[in-house]
Specification:
Mean pLDDT: 89
Largest sheet: 5 strands, antiparallel
Number of helices: 0
Number of strands: 5
Order of helices and strands: EEEEE
Strand order of the largest sheet: 4-3-2-1-5
């Protein structure tokens, strides 16, 4: 029996918004997608500096640009 493969519907360069956690409502850009772990690496601005943070795929959503 093999574990189910998680389908992560993001790709490098997608703009996303963090939905929960310490960085809730931050917006950033996807740097890397790791489907095996179900994670996306997102570059967000923290204190004016770009910072790369890994999030589970369900903690982010595609950002609506205004």
């Amino acid at each position: 029996e093999t574990p189910d493969q998680v389908t992560v519907d993001y790709k490098k360069g997608d703009r996303v918004r963090i939905k929960e956690g310490s960085f809730e409502n931050f917006k950033g850009e996807v740097d890397e997608v790791n489907s095996d772990k179900g994670q996306v690496s997102v570059s967000i601005l923290v204190f004016g500096r770009p910072t790369r943070i890994d999030f589970e795929y369900w903690k982010v959503e595609k950002a609506i640009e205004e």
